[in-house]
Amino acid sequence: MIIQGKCHTFGNDIDTDVIIPARYLNTSDPQELARHCMEDLDPGFAGRVQQGDIIAAGKNFGCGSSREHAPLAIKAAGVRAVIAASFARIFYRNAINIGLPIFESAAAAAGIQAGDEVKIDAEQGVIVNLTRGESYEVTPLPPFIQEIIAAGGLMPWVARKVNRDV
Amino acid sequence: MGMTITEKILAAHAGLEQVEPGQLVNARIDLALGNDITAPLAIKEFRKLGVKVFDPERIALVPDHFTPAKDIKSAEQAKLLRDFAREQKISNYFEVGRMGIEHCLLPEQGLVGPGDLVIGADSHTCTYGALGAVATGIGSTDLAAAMATGECWFRVPETILLRYHGQLQPYVGGKDLIIYTIGQIGVDGARYMAMEFTGEAIAALSMDGRFTMANMAIEAGAKNGIFPVDAKTLAYIEGRLQRDYRVFQSDADATYAEIIDIDASSIEPQVALPHLPENARSVRELGEIKIDQVVIGSCTNGRLEDLRQAAAILKGRQVHPEIRAIIIPGTQQIYREALDEGLIQIFIDAGAAVSTPTCGPCLGGHMGILAKGERAVATTNRNFVGRMGHPESEVYLAGPAVAAASAIKGRIAAPEEVR
Known about the structure:
Number of domains of chain B: 2
Number of helices of chain B: 14
Oligomer: heterodimer
Low-confidence stretches of chain B: none
Order of helices and strands of chain A: EHHHEHEHEHEEEHH
Structural class of chain A: alpha/beta
CATH superfamily of the largest domain in chain B: Aconitase, domain 3
Structural class of chain B: alpha/beta
Helix content of chain A: 25-40%
Distance between the termini of chain B: 52 Å
Mean pLDDT of chain B: 98
Number of helices of chain A: 8
Low-confidence stretches of chain A: none
CATH architecture of the largest domain in chain B: 2-Layer Sandwich
Shape of chain B: globular
Radius of gyration of chain A: 16 Å
Helix content of chain B: 25-40%
Strand content of chain A: 15-25%
Shape of chain A: globular
Distance between the termini of chain A: 33 Å
CATH topology of the largest domain in chain B: Aconitase, domain 3
Strand order of the largest sheet of chain B: 13-12-18-17-14-15-16
């Protein structure tokens, strides 16, 4: 999987309340959620973000609430992947479960500036910053997680298991 | 090789003799929880499988966040939950009027016990660690999968052992200990890890205080917070838990990622400043911070002991004329007990509003939303940007004693200032 796009940058400890404020959680419609993505931190984000863009952020991205609406809102806003120095654990699970590609790289988080064009090579585990001519290593995903991703998310993976068990 | 309590519980549920940190295991769960925000998404995903739930007795659905329904969309979400519970014969569905805030309600109703492995589509599911269970928050898709299979995958977490020494000062409780701790290690200080709370100050802490501490383990990024089972735990589950349970304890030679010793006797009543729970300060260090609202309640501090502490300070006094004080008992049973003890009378006499159980204001849902520029002292768990309302409002986290004192003073105040 190769993902190439323009980066939007955010800082440390981006919590799920700013990714999608709870006042919009009376729906789970991804398109409606996408309209309010990052609203309390960057009110212009949802209007500015383009299909195929990438988010690059600091440590502990997605901390706080378990709301799966957070990765859903990011994905439906058109974001193809999230790069962060580290992810909060529930967000990490949720992103994998719904098929939002995430990449952990402290070097990338430190090096990428807003507007940079980056190319992520998931198989090779490397992020190339085309704007700056830098490249960053990605922390590899455990094989089991790769299996879920290869199945297309948790539900297709479980469906196979359930059908086998029945 | 020795194991921690968390490792032992995960091993037992995965059918393994031994597990170690970093290992991925598939484990049988004892209970799966969803609420009116997270369960609708889970139900949508669950329906794709075309199966029945693995065990209707091991699923709990609690419409507590936007209920009593705050608007039409919320009513539709709650209805989805209700209809699903009826269709799948899920008896642990709790309707408004019998409902409580999920993390106050489930232990109270005896749905969680020592040694359990519990997942919930709510990040504060870690609260049940107070009972010596491994309990952790997951998302809606994980809940959907667990409702179908009765299983969930886990990465066995490293454990941080926290040892609290000494005797607590007056007005210092579980909330102060956990805010102080998060202040020490940071909001990602225990990311992916288990926090094991021990020491003589923990042994002396009430069950309600332990629930408060376990509840906020997630605010340090932890997978779970857990307490050793003792006589207080067993007294709490007596008459509540209707099934067998198993008491696990950490081995003396268990391996910890870190051991942190804390002199609990030196901790003063704490406040976490906006906009992260790690911004911990002693209330005495703060200057004049005027506030507009006080919220006492939530899955963190909506239990009877919390209401008693607030009432002890509010008794015979008045809420400051410029303050809106909102008090929310965690469950109907807590509400009833508070009524019987005369606490509700004290709150109303003081000029506070008392609400039916709801998560409401904690997450900026309803029942006390802040306007632009307003400040609240809340006994809740998060003070992120926009958490209780307008993105330019502020939340200061504290325990019930500081919150009650602040309601009287109209500014952030130490409990001693009003007594």
